[in-house]
Amino acid sequence: MHAAVVTAFGPADVFELTELPDPAPGPGQVAIDVTHAAVGLIDVYLRQGLYKDQKGLPQPPYVPGLEVAGTVRALGDGVEGLRVGEPVVTLSGTGAEGGYASVAVVDAAMAVGLEGSGVDPALAVAAVPNAATAYLALTEVAHLKAGEHVLVHGALGGLASAFPGIARTLGAAGVTGTARRPSLERARASALPYDEVLASDDFAEAVGDRLFDVVVDPVGGQVRTDSLRVMAPMGRMLLVGNAGGDWQHTVPTNALWGGNLALLGFAVGYYLPDHPEQARPAARAALEAIRQGLMPIDVQTLPLSQAAEAHRRIENGSVGGRLVLTP
Ligand SMILES: NC(=O)c1ccc[n+]([C@@H]2O[C@H](COP(=O)([O-])OP(=O)(O)OC[C@H]3O[C@@H](n4cnc5c(N)ncnc54)[C@H](OP(=O)(O)O)[C@@H]3O)[C@@H](O)[C@H]2O)c1
Predict the structure, then answer these.
(1) What is the per-residue pLDDT across 61-71, written as a single tens digit (0 to 9) for each?
(2) Cys-Cys link to 218, which of 1, 89, 241, 271 (CB 3.0-4.6 A)?
(3) Residue 79 neighbours by CB under 8 Å, 6+ apart
(4) How far, in Å, CA of 214 to CA of 237, rounded?
(5) Residue nearest atom 25 in ligand 1 by C-alpha distance
(6) Domain residue spans in the chain?
């Protein structure tokens, strides 16, 4: 198979395109002929070596890539409910590697059939995993209720942009986004189902007296602290990322006590392996949101040979949608 291999932790030029033996599925796994592989900020963090000491995460040389779309190539022992040739998309939770290749092996529970969905594989891999994450975060963790108001930071980000559509399907009364000033006009012009998009440096003043029941924060840093000022009593903030890159930032926890607030961490890659039965219902919710037109994600495609370029574009923040590699 073709694969883009991270040969060492470091800058994007550590990628090498190479040929490797085709992997075969073990018990409970499926092999997939990959047509599209998602690229996310987490892939960049892993390549940079940010998590190099974290147990269970890959060490070079490794093939990155958490999520793929393609067709089932082979079934491992004991796999039911999927057939060879079936179009599928996979969710995170399959281990932090393997997607940037022409063949990938994943746990069968993380592979979701696309037949009859009408969703093309590029959009599926761009939207379904993040939308399934949004669904699990909003239902299982933040317990979003119909009629509640949601605030989403980094409005155009790959993960963030899945939240407004899922929040709508769950009956949110309103969804406000925030974006940095250079991205603000693009975010306001996008077809994502936000009611409004505010500048991330003064959203807390701009909202006036309005308060939010659920805040979605994949950005961290100052927007996380500022969010405490706009949360309704019994408000929940989902901590789902740190795209701003301020790893030292802390929040004043006494504000939680006084405000009856909760901060809730959620990482789908660690959640789904413990709850594999939730993968397909979450993916079905994601596909339904796509069907309703609530996931108008801008998908950009690059060949696998340009994996390094894909990472550079994510690092310099020039994507504004989702990047997908084609082997
Ligand atoms: N919890 C989970 O299960 C899960 C799943 C997937 C991803 N993640 C995490 O979520 C985060 C985002 O990942 P992604 O793939 O969505 O990345 P992405 O597509 O690159 O999006 C990052 C977003 O953050 C915004 N941003 C960056 N720095 C900012 C700052 N200082 N202030 C305000 N906004 C800022 C960017 O805004 P601009 O548009 O202005 O550049 C962009 O909208 C990462 O930390 C990733 O690890 C978590």
Answers:
(1) 999 999 999 99
(2) 241
(3) 25, 28, 29, 30, 108
(4) 6
(5) 154
(6) 2-116+297-326, 130-268
Q: What residue's CA is closest to ligand 1, atom 2?
A: 267
Q: What is the pLDDT of residue 80?
A: 94
Beta carbons within 8 Å of 216's beta carbon, 6+ residues apart: 134, 137, 150, 151, 152, 153, 160, 163, 237, 238, 240
Q: Which residue has the higher pLDDT, 299 or 55?
A: 299
Mean pLDDT within 118-130: 96
For atom 8 of ligand 1, the residue with the nearest CA is 241
232: tokens are 């309704």
What fold is seen in the domain 130-268?
A: Rossmann fold (3.40.50)
Q: Are the CB atoms for 323 and 310 separated by under 8 Å?
A: yes
How far, in Å, from the CA of 157 to the mean position of ligand 1?
5
The label of the residue with tokens 């975010």 reads 187
CA of 161 to the centre of ligand 1 (A): 10
CATH of 2-116+297-326, one of 3.10.129.10, 3.30.1440.10, 3.90.180.10, 3.40.50.720: 3.90.180.10
